[in-house]
Every structure is written in structure tokens, then in C-alpha cells.
Design brief:
Catalytic activity: N(2)-succinyl-L-arginine + 2 H2O + 2 H(+) = N(2)-succinyl-L-ornithine + 2 NH4(+) + CO2
Radius of gyration: 20 Å
Helix content: 25-40%
Protein name: N-succinylarginine dihydrolase
Structural class: alpha/beta
InterPro entries: AstB_sf (IPR037031), SuccinylArg_d-Hdrlase_AstB (IPR007079)
Number of helices: 17
EC number: 3.5.3.23
Function: Catalyzes the hydrolysis of N(2)-succinylarginine into N(2)-succinylornithine, ammonia and CO(2).
Bound molecules: N~2~-(3-carboxypropanoyl)-L-arginine
Distance between the termini: 39 Å
Shape: globular
Strand content: 15-25%
Strand order of the largest sheet: 2-1-15
Number of strands: 15
């Protein structure tokens, strides 16, 4: 039986725009109200995903969510025809309308936390959609995320789906963006590392002063319980609150792991030394901690370039490749670091750069765009095969984007009823292409 890591990338939806919705995410705030190009955004994402498929990785695609989210607008009291709902929301609650139009489900690292069957007591793959309660525009994602995941990983012999955690700040959960699995081989039991921003129920605990800590210890512990992990294969680490205050709003902006490598910034964690010792004790065998010093890459450069929001992947020869945004190549300090890294004696032997600037301008790098699922052959055979990216799906999705997407979108365009029609037409067709069934509210 073969074991491997599959990556499921979020397809950028037709309403991709820059609305400045994410306080604490520097790029989102800096690019607010710029013109976005949804067509280019979707194609950049597909290009990256296809390149990975061509490298021999198992690569899937997750459908975008229904936006504008008329269901939420009606739930908060806007009524009438769809057009009237949009017009009233634009006039009376423009910020809420913007939140209900975000294409943020593209960042599937925040879709869910996934524990592979090798780690769980019942030998099944466990999924918990993230509740994303810290941001209004993201808090409306989990229900549909769960529907989409269930439509793909439907076989209950292999897959277990949990409800998202209670919708309260004590259980703020941002999914796999704060979760890394380390292991020797994908099929061996690994150590699941949960990085949290704050301990919500302990007023004495340290926390950031300026920006929100979106992930709580309480949420991470709940996920570990639900996924039936135990103490021997979990480690909980607090993210350094000082870096959250400098724009590191998720752990995947400051650290990334794959198999027996943890690539992280010197300032990423609280209590780093003791936590790395704990990981070493729980994960038997060889382990590489690649720590990037501030003297070589400042926090500011890490946040700007997204050096750590890279995908660290194992190639068929067992060596590792970093999938980086072109922003890393454009940042002299980061480029120099990556060039040097390739000369060192570590499993990382290659860096590939991809232009995902449309997503980057909202604070989403290559690693934000994907949800990792470590699987085996039998599990892969049990999923909906129509979401796996091959030449045929790539061609069909590009043609679908060309047919339905705009190449310019401003926040002011979000109330345009025609955009709603375009989005629904596109998504309806997509569910047929990917054989998803009726996952959207407007189809029910
Ligand atoms: N690091 C990971 N895993 N994900 C990145 C998510 C970016 C996303 N940006 C936004 O939601 C901006 C939307 C806007 O401003 O229009 C967020 O902050 O939640």
C-alpha cells in the first residue's frame, strides 16, 4: 500500500476582491479597495496546482463557496427579491455586504484540520471544518466547507466528519493553518503539532496586544480530542504573541513542516527549546529543525515575502522541494537565504517559484491555498475522483473560468445583481463538472 500527501487547492471564486476585511493581516489592509482580477487569480491558482500534479503529486481541487451569500443577508433581515436584498445591504450595511461577498474560501488551509488514519485511534481520516469566528467574512464558511468535504470524502469506512467547534471566541479555530503533522513516513503514526495564538480561558496567559490571536489552545485541544489523537502524538505550542502583532496572523506565515522537517523562524514560538525537545521525544528517528535567524530574515521580510507560507513537499526521490511565491525571489534577503539553504545539508534540495500575486495581495500564499490530506491508495480510491486535477480537468476549469469570470472587480461592484447571476451560473456548472451534487444553498 502506498502512502502520500495529497493537496487540495481552493479554486478562487468569481467574486475575488480586495475589501480590507482582515484586521491583523497586513496585505489585506494595505490592498483594500484596489481593483482585483478574479480571472487572473483563478488561473494563477490553477497553474500552481497543475504544476504540482505534473511533478507527480496527488492534487485535488475544492470548489469555491456561494458568494454573494444571500442566505446570510436574509438571515440578518434583508428581504425582497435577490436584487432588493443586495441593494438594501449596499445602502444600509455596506461592510456586511462586503463580508458576504468575499472569495476567502480559496484559502483552504483554513478550511479544516485533517488528521490522517495513521494517527487516529479508529484508523480513519478525521476532518473538522474550521469555525473561523474571528472574522465575519470567514465565519460564514464552515457549513458549506463541511458539505463540500463530505461530498468528496464520502465513504464512512475511511472518513469521519465532525461538526465545526462552537462559534465563540474561546474556540476560535483556523484549521490547518495552525496545524502541522510531522512523521518519518506518511503511513507511520506521526506527531501532530498544534500552534495556538492564545489561551482564551486563562486571563493571566500572555497574548498579543495589537492584533487578534485567531487560534485558541482550547480549540486545538478540542480538535485533538475529536480526532482521537493522544498525548504521545500531539504537541501544543504557543505562537509568539510579538510576531502576531507584526502581522503573523497564522502559524503558517512563520513555520511549515513536512515529514521529518520543521522549517521555522527563530521567533515563531514561545518556549521554543523545550517544545522542540518534546517533538524530538515524541517523533522517533531523524528530525531536522531548520531555524531561520532574524539576522538573515526579519519578521517584516517573512511577512512581506511569505517565505514560510511555502509548500514543503516530498518529491518521488524522497528529497524535498519548496513551492514559493515569486515574492520570495523578489526580496533580496529572502532570495539570498533560499539560495544558501540549497547549499546546506538538509532534505530541502529545490525551490520553485509561482506567481500567486492576486492571492498574495489578500495575504494568501501558496500554503494558504491548499489543504493537505495524507492518505493511502485505498483512501484515495474511495474519494470523488472528479476533483482530482489532471489534464482534462485543468483544461475544463480554465475554459470555465474564461467563460464566467470578470477580469476586474472593485468592492463597489459587489452589489451588482448581475455578479450574483454570473456567480450562480458559474457555480452551478462547476458542480456538474466536478460531480459534487447540490452543495450550494441556491441549488436546494
Ligand atoms: N495563512 C493562511 N492560511 N491563510 C490566509 C488567509 C488570508 C485571508 N485574507 C482575507 O480574508 C482578506 C480578504 C479581504 O480583505 O478582502 C484571511 O485573513 O483569513
Amino acid at each position: 500500500m502506498k502512502h502520500f500527501e495529497a493537496n487540495f487547492d481552493g479554486l478562487v471564486g468569481p467574486t475575488h476582491n480586495y475589501a480590507g476585511l482582515s484586521f491583523g493581516n497586513v496585505a489585506s489592509l494595505n490592498n483594500a479597495a484596489q481593483a482585483a482580477n478574479p480571472k487572473a487569480a483563478a488561473k494563477q491558482g490553477l497553474q500552481k496546482a497543475k504544476a504540482l500534479a505534473d511533478m507527480g503529486m496527488v492534487q485535488g481541487i475544492l470548489a469555491p463557496q456561494e458568494r454573494p451569500d444571500l442566505h446570510t443577508l436574509r438571515r440578518i433581515g434583508f428581504s425582497g427579491t435577490d436584487k432588493e436584498v443586495l441593494q438594501k445591504a449596499a445602502a444600509q450595511a455596506p461592510a456586511v455586504l462586503r463580508a458576504c461577498c468575499s472569495a476567502s474560501s480559496m484559502w483552504t488551509a483554513n478550511a479544516a484540520t485533517v488528521s490522517p488514519s495513521a494517527d487516529t485511534h479508529d484508523g480513519r481520516v478525521h476532518f473538522t471544518p474550521a469555525n473561523l469566528v474571528d472574522k465575519l467574512h470567514r465565519s460564514i464558511e464552515p457549513q458549506t466547507t463541511g458539505n463540500i468535504l463530505k461530498a468528496i470524502f464520502s465513504d464512512s469506512r475511511y472518513f469521519v466528519h465532525h461538526q465545526h467547534l462552537p462559534e465563540h471566541s474561546s474556540f476560535g479555530d483556523e484549521g490547518a493553518a495552525n496545524h502541522t503533522r510531522l512523521c518519518q513516513e506518511y503511513g507511520h503514526a506521526g506527531v501532530e503539532v498544534f500552534v495556538y495564538g492564545q489561551e482564551a480561558t486563562n486571563p493571566q496567559a500572555i497574548r498579543p496586544k495589537k492584533f487578534p490571536a485567531r487560534q485558541t489552545l482550547e480549540a486545538s485541544q478540542a480538535i485533538a480530542r475529536l480526532h482521537r489523537l493522544d498525548e504521545d502524538n500531539t504537541v501544543f505550542i504557543q505562537q509568539n504573541p510579538e510576531v502576531i502583532d507584526q502581522g503573523v496572523f497564522h502559524n503558517d506565515v512563520i513555520a511549515v513542516g513536512n515529514r521529518n522537517v520543521l522549517f521555522h523562524h527563530e521567533q515563531a514560538f514561545v518556549d521554543t527549546k523545550a517544545k522542540l525537545v518534546e517533538i524530538r521525544a515524541k517523533l522517533e528517528g531523524d528530525i531536522h529543525f531548520i531555524e531561520v535567524p532574524t539576522a538573515k530574515v526579519s519578521i517584516q521580510d517573512a511577512v512581506k515575502s511569505y517565505l514560510f507560507n511555502t509548500q514543503l513537499l516530498s518529491m518521488s526521490d524522497g528529497k524535498m522541494v519548496i513551492i514559493a511565491p515569486t515574492d520570495c525571489a523578489e526580496n533580496p534577503a529572502v532570495k539570498a537565504y533560499l539560495d544558501e539553504l540549497l547549499t546546506l545539508d538538509t532534505p530541502i534540495q529545490k525551490v520553485e517559484y509561482f506567481d500567486v500575486k492576486q492571492s498574495m495581495q489578500n495575504g494568501g500564499g501558496p500554503a494558504c491555498l491548499r489543504l493537505r490530506v495524507a492518505m493511502n491508495d485505498a483512501e484515495l480510491a474511495a474519494i470523488n475522483q472528479h476533483v482530482l486535477l489532471d489534464d482534462n480537468l485543468f483544461t475544463r476549469l480554465n475554459a470555465w473560468v474564461d467563460k464566467h469570470y470578470r477580469d476586474r472587480l472593485l468592492p463597489a461592484d459587489l452589489a451588482d445583481p448581475q455578479l450574483l447571476v454570473e456567480s450562480r451560473t458559474a457555480l452551478d456548472e462547476l458542480t456538474q463538472i466536478m460531480k459534487l451534487g447540490s452543495v450550494y444553498q441556491f441549488q436546494r
